[in-house]
Design a protein that fits this description.
The structure holds two protein chains of two kinds.
Chain A: H1 3-14, E1 18-20, H2 22-33, H3 39-53, E2 74-76, H4 86-94, H5 104-118, H6 123-130, H7 133-141, H8 161-164, H9 167-179, H10 189-223, H11 227-242, H12 251-268, H13 280-294, H14 299-314, H15 323-328, E3 337-341, H16 353-365, E4 371-376, H17 382-392, E5 400-403, H18 404-413, H19 418-422, E6 425-427, E7 431-433, E8 438-447, H20 448-456, E9 460-461, E10 466-467, H21 481-513, H22 517-522, H23 526-529, E11 540-548, H24 550-566, H25 572-580, H26 587-595, H27 605-622, E12 632-636, H28 642-648, H29 678-687, E13 699-702, H30 709-725, E14 730-735, H31 738-746, E15 755-757, E16 762-764, H32 770-783
Parallel strand pairs in A: 1-2, 3-4, 4-5, 8-11, 11-12, 13-14
Antiparallel strand pairs in A: 5-14, 6-7, 9-10, 15-16
Chain B: H1 3-11, H2 14-20, E1 23-26, H3 35-47, E2 51-56, H4 62-69, E3 74-78, H5 84-91, H6 96-108, E4 112-118, H7 126-139, E5 143-148, H8 154-159, H9 174-186, E6 190-193
Parallel strand pairs in B: 1-2, 2-3, 3-4, 4-5, 5-6
Helix pairs in contact in B: 1-3, 4-6
Classes of the chains: A alpha/beta, B alpha/beta.
Chain lengths: 795, 195
């Protein structure tokens, strides 16, 4: 890392996230004055107003320029989506984790200007007003969450358009599409006209943003006394005058073009997962190759420019979230997730020189954002995987590893063309998408164990006594496991119905009131169709519901099947009694359930067959339902931090879990339930049919010693390849710290699955004697390094 | 437990063997104490094309050694002491059978890694190392793993309320182990520490 990047990195690490009121003020000003009737055109003009009037920031040392807010780490708000109350500001300012400082001025303006205009008009207000009582009951009970109550649908990734076409080229396409509108035979022609005009205005807005940066750079250059920096500022101005209006001509321009595009998307709306360059190594390679051949670019320069862009990502904390949204996604990271490797459009190995360069950048930068992953195909070389694992073993959580061949299979199953599938990848946490061509909207987490809980209570939520499900009968009267499972399916069917009915309304609200004309420019085939990103414009339109805690649900069903129906060691009445009392006075029973029951994650077909039943039941309810945009519903399995929130809403479960404790994460086994080693976990996880999902998330914990040396890398590489051969979608390694080991010593039950390298062998940490545990803690402390990021998340 | 039971457990990890070139290691105690079962298991693995390693002290009937060698890809063969009397003193049996069986394996061309537990004061002297080298060299056995004595088992003895016979014996230092490795390497052996 050179001195410039060292300084920029230090600054981004030291700067604290704060709330910026700038966007809210400008937007409110605009909406008070502007009376445009057409919704998309009004939205585009709003973007234009923001881009014309926002503060332009160019920091000392920067080569890639542009901030979402007025300065680094200043996160704007989006009152048209979620208009924060003063109480919200209070919470954001003071909460212990993931806080945003709110200054006096922001407080005042929110009170005097923003709240009076947007209260009752924000999407959040509209959404909650439109939801049925059944929806509200389920939402408040923590059976599902709602992604669009504070943030806009995004969940999309840029394809290669920015590197092939300037915004002016896209405007020419818009002109052509406008000239082909048939106002006499197409009843939608006038709404298409408005949408297309809006896209053209949005293009101008972002071109203007770039020009303003050019002006600012020139202004700074005039007063700059240091000749080196002066030349850089003039170069920045030159770049900003060219992109994103025109096609980038070199590596630098390609990066800056992406960044302005990114800022356009995340200023227009606070899209989920912000925005993402996706297959960056593929897109950048031609520019890199050309620069190297012509002698106009060196490896060091390319790395420096990439690192300057990395700083930009890290400067943008996620927009401030409150309430359930903050609980389900409690992190500063905004989920831009760089894909490396994978396959090319023609199906060949996609690893190139830029792939390794980006991995070097990730390794050096060690930043929370952007996130990064390996798209590992069987066609990719082991050297690529091992380079990634070298970074993994340093223990700061990146990169995660995806099975590129399975991603293609998932996309093909959903009906994408093979080329679109190969140019796709994963974004956010683990979500599969056809990059540049698909809106794949995540709509909410879905609490599978809670569905079982209401099944056992005849539709009642025992936490509140409120009826949130339907009556499927008193569980005490069930004479077979099959009867129980049938009741579970009925409840599941009902809750998915409630969720989808709500989604359909929300989808229309966004289509009608919150179009995203700038984002629509960038996603095929919005221009050709004359339709917005939020209204079925993309080539593919997918709606996801994310299953949470399949393992807790499976182990709970397994416990009932095994103890109540198969072995008859327990009665249903006795079990329900113990659950109702959160096992108080029933510790022996709890230990029986916890220790003497088949559990998912042990390659045990008794439990794993139940996992498949749960998987199929959820899949059957969700997959193939039609959304309102001409696309279909799909399932995926991830939990971000929602398994903690859902756990806090879910009472004791039959697997021996106490009330309010976290549920299992992703598709990982219940914390501590896997006792047959990592190969058994991978075997169990692979029994799920990943091809019928849009992504699954599997966490594995290791201590640094396990990945030590070339032999350690070999072993883990083989483990990954094996899991992918079995059809797994994703795996990530949490390299544990001494602090985790201490926690495991204090609370062994939660860490039953923690494996450590002892001597020439590995063992479960909790099985070691205290003395040996202490020795390993000391050793881990010695070998671990202190990560330089402010927050580590496993999402 | 039957051979098919064990095999069913083993094949669960087949995909990992395929990727890593791994397989099963039959160890103990002394697996050849249950020679018949081990022979059947190794034969079953061979049928299934699963690579096999046998971790043995070599104290078994030579006919058994010959038979199992048909289905073993690699022997991890313990050689504790070259002096017959001292061997008897520390292990309870003489080492003539152990040495004879190792010779048989060498002659049959089996892949063997000789494993020497390095126990301070017992087998780390130069007489033993000289004898070891003299014995292995003509047999063409070149790979030696040195396994330094460790005290990890002492906890377990304590928990089982057994007296720990190695009380007061410290693990060899890294320097001592390196010196032994260097001495054997001079005679042309390929030596690993640990393993």
């Amino acid at each position: 890392m050179n001195e410039r990047v060292t300084r920029l990195r230090q600054a981004t690490l030291e700067t604290k996230p704060r709330l910026s009121i700038e966007r809210a003020v400008l937007l409110t000003e605009f909406y008070r004055q502007d009376k445009t009737a057409s919704v998309p055109i009004r939205r585009a003009r709003a973007l234009q107003y923001l881009m014309e009037n926002k503060e332009v920031y160019i920091g000392r040392d920067e080569l890639i320029v542009g901030e979402r807010g007025p300065a680094p780490k200043a996160a704007p708000t989006f009152p048209e989506l979620c208009c924060h109350s003063l109480d919200d500001f209070e919470i954001l300012n003071w909460r212990e984790k993931i806080s945003y400082s709110v200054d006096e001025q922001a407080w005042q303006v929110q009170k005097d200007e923003v709240l009076p205009y947007w209260r009752g008009r924000s999407m959040r207000d509209l959404i909650f007003a439109e939801m049925t009582p059944e929806w509200k009951n389920a939402y408040e009970a923590g059976i599902f969450t709602e992604f669009m109550e504070q943030r806009a649908p995004g969940h999309t990734v840029l394809g290669d358009v920015t590197y092939r076409k300037g915004l002016l080229d896209l405007k020419a396409e818009i002109e052509s599409a406008l000239s082909h509108l048939d106002f006499f035979n197409d009843p939608e022609a006038s709404s298409k006209r408005d949408e297309l005009r809006a896209m053209a205005i949005a293009a101008d807005a972002v071109i203007r943003l770039a020009e303003r940066h050019a002006e600012k750079a020139e202004e700074l250059a005039r007063v700059e006394t240091e000749p080196g920096r002066q030349a850089e500022l003039l170069k920045i101005a030159e770049v900003c005058r060219h992109v994103p209006a025109h096609v980038p001509r070199d590596f630098w321009e390609a990066l800056q073009a992406y960044w302005f595009t990114h800022l356009g998307v995340v200023t227009e709306l606070n899209t989920w997962d912000s925005f993402c360059p996706g297959r960056f190594d593929q897109h950048l390679y031609p520019f890199y190759q050309k620069g190297m051949e012509e002698g106009t670019l060196t490896g060091d320069q390319a790395q420096e420019l990439l690192e300057c862009l990395w700083i930009k990502f890290n400067n943008q904390p996620a927009p401030p979230k409150v309430g359930v949204t903050a609980a389900e996604s409690g992190t500063y990271t905004d989920f831009a997730n760089i894909n490396n490797g994978g396959l090319k459009r023609d199906g060949s190995d996609g690893v190139n020189d830029v792939t390794y360069l980006i991995l070097d950048v990730i390794d050096e930068m060690r930043l929370l954002q952007p996130s990064s992953n390996l798209q590992l195909s069987k066609k990719n070389p082991d050297a690529f995987l091992k380079r990634g694992l070298e970074i993994v073993r340093q223990g700061w959580g990146q990169p995660s590893i995806f099975n590129a061949d399975m991603v293609v299979e998932e996309l093909l199953r959903q009906g994408k063309s093979v080329e679109d599938a190969r140019c796709g990848g994963t974004s956010g946490c683990v979500e599969t998408g056809a990059f540049g061509k698909e809106a794949y909207i995540l709509t909410g987490y879905f609490n599978l164990p809670k569905v079982l809980e209401i099944t056992l209570n005849n539709g009642i939520d025992p936490r509140t006594g409120k009826k949130i499900g339907i009556e499927t009968g008193d569980a005490r009267t069930f004479s077979s496991y099959e009867q129980l499972f049938a009741a579970f399916r009925e409840q599941l069917h009902y809750v998915v119905d409630v969720k989808v009915r709500g989604n359909n309304v929300i989808e229309r609200l966004y289509a009608d009131y919150m179009p995203a004309p700038f984002l629509s420019l960038l996603v095929d085939d919005c221009i050709a169709k004359g339709k917005d990103y939020n209204n079925g414009g993309p080539r593919y339109n997918t709606t996801y519901i994310m299953g949470v805690a399949p393992a807790t649900c499976t182990d709970s069903l397994a416990a009932i099947k095994y103890h109540v129906f198969d072995r008859k060691t327990l009665t249903m009445d006795g079990l329900l009694e113990a659950l109702a009392h959160n096992f108080e006075g029933h510790e022996k029973l709890r230990l029986l359930l916890w220790n003497k029951t088949p559990k998912f994650g042990n390659d045990d077909d008794y439990a794993d067959a139940i996992l498949m039943d749960v998987f199929n039941a959820f899949f059957d309810e969700v997959d193939g339902r039609r959304n309102t945009k001409g696309g279909y519903y799909r399932v995926n399995y991830l939990s971000t931090t929602c398994h903690v929130y859902f756990g806090s809403m879910t009472g004791a479960t039959p697997d021996g879990r106490r009330a309010w404790e976290p549920l299992s994460d992703g598709i990982s086994p219940v914390q501590g339930a896997d006792r047959n080693g990592p190969t058994a976990v991978l075997k169990s996880a692979a029994k799920m049919d990943h091809a019928r999902t849009g992504g699954t998330l599997l966490n594995q914990k290791f201590t640094p010693q396990l990945l030590k040396g070339e032999a350690g890398l070999d072993r883990v590489a083989q483990l990954v390849r094996s899991y992918f051969r079995l059809g797994g979608h994703h795996i990530q390694f949490n390299v544990v710290t001494a602090a985790t080991l201490r926690a495991a010593q204090a609370d062994p039950e939660k860490y039953r699955d923690l494996i450590v390298r002892v001597a020439g062998y590995s063992d479960y940490f909790c099985d070691l004697t205290r003395a040996l545990q202490d020795e390993i803690i000391a050793r881990t402390e010695h070998e671990a390094f202190a990560p330089a990021i402010q927050e580590t998340t496993t999402v | 437990m039957t051979v098919p039971d064990v095999l069913a457990e083993v094949v669960k990890d087949e995909v990992f063997f395929d990727e890593s070139g791994g397989g099963i290691t039959v160890s103990g105690g002394e697996p050849l104490m249950q020679a018949e079962f081990v022979e059947a298991l190794l034969a079953a693995c061979r049928t299934r094309r699963i690579r096999t390693v046998l971790d043995t002290c070599g104290f078994a009937d030579s006919s058994v050694i010959r038979r199992v060698s048909e289905n073993v890809d690699l022997f991890l063969y313990d050689l504790k002491l070259m002096d017959c009397e001292r061997h008897r003193h520390f292990t309870g049996v003489k080492n003539d059978l152990v040495l004879r069986n190792l010779k048989i394996l060498a002659e049959r061309g089996s892949a063997v890694i000789v494993r020497v537990p390095v126990i301070p004061g017992v087998n780390d002297n130069s007489d033993n190392l000289d004898a070891l080298s003299d014995f292995l060299s003509p047999l063409g056995l070149q790979e030696i793993d040195l396994l330094p004595f460790h005290r990890i088992g002492s906890d377990k003895y304590q928990r089982l309320h057994l007296s720990y016979g190695m009380e007061g014996v410290d693990p060899p230092t890294a320097g001592q182990i390196e010196a032994i490795a260097a001495r054997l390497r001079r005679d042309g052996f390929s030596v690993r520490i640990g393993g």
